[in-house]
Amino acid sequence: EAGVTQFPSHSVIEKGQTVTLRCDPISGHDNLYWYRRVMGKEIKFLLHFVKESKQDESGMPNNRFLAERTGGTYSTLKVQPAELEDSGVYFCASSQGGGRVQETQYFGPGTRLLVL
Amino acid sequence: AQSVTQLGSHVSVSEGALVLLRCNYSSSVPPYLFWYVQYPNQGLQLLLKYTTGATLVKGINGFEAEFKKSETSFHLTKPSAHMSDAAEYFCALSTGRRALTFGSGTRLQVQP
Predict the structure, then answer these.
(1) A104 and chain B in contact, CB less than 8 A
(2) CA triple A65-A10-A69, angle to 5 deg
C-alpha cells in the first residue's frame, strides 16, 4: 500500500511568486491534515479536511494560503503571494476516519519550501 | 490551550547506551500522546502512542514510553542505542480536536 506522497519535494521561489504544493493521502483515508515546520521551530497544524470539507482551518496563518481537496482525494496548498516567512517544511498527513480521536496520522515526507 | 515541551534539542549517546528523550505536556483535559521519528529525507513515522489503559507503552524498534500523569510526562526510552536510531524524535499531543500539537523535536546522535 502506498503511503502519503507529496509533490514537489523541494521548491525554491522568489518573494511574491506563487507556489502550489500537492498531497496524495493514503487511499481511502477521509482525514487529511496539513502541518508546517518553520526552521528550528515546532511542527504546527495548519488545517484539517474530512473528505472534501474543511473541518478545521484555525492554523492557517493568513489569507495568502488557500487549501483545497476537490473530490475528497488529493489536496493542494497554494501560497500566493509567497513571503520570506513562508519558508519551511510543509507536511501532509492522513488518517482513516471513523470517529476515533486517537487514530494514527500517517505523514508524507514533506515539501521543503524556500522563499528568497 | 495545550503544549508539549521536549527537553534538549540535541541528545548524544554511545552505541549500546540507554536512550532517554524527555517530553512534558500541558493539557486541561486527558491527552492522547504520541512519539514520532523522522529519519533523513523521510516522513514522520509513528513510534508509539498512549490513549488509555496501560501507562507503559511499547513501540517499534525497542522503544517504550511511560505516561506519568502526576509528572505530566511521557518520556521515551530504549535500553540500548543502535546506530540506526539516529534521527529526530517528536513528542505530540491530541485532545480530541484531532490536530496534533508537537514539541520542538530532539535530534538523537549515536556515537560508535
Answers:
(1) yes
(2) 40
Give percent of chain B with pLDDT exceeding 90. Answer: 81
Scanning every residue of chain A, which has its alpha carbon at the shortest distance from the alpha carbon of B38? A109
DSSP string, chain A: ----EEE-SEEEE-TT--EEEEEE--TT--EEEEEEE-TTS-EEEEEEEETTEEEE-TT--STTEEEE-GGGS-EEEEESS--GGG-EEEEEEEE--SS-TTPPPEE---EEEEE-
Q: What is the pLDDT of residues A32-57, one digit of tens each?
A: 999 999 987 899 999 999 999 999 99
Percent of chain B scoring above 70 in pLDDT: 98
* B-chain residues near A44 (CB < 8 A): 102
Cell 500522546, residue located: B33
Q: Read off the C-alpha cell for A24.
A: 496524495
Q: What cell numbers appear for B27 in the block?
A: 493539557
Grid look-up 506519568 returns: B68
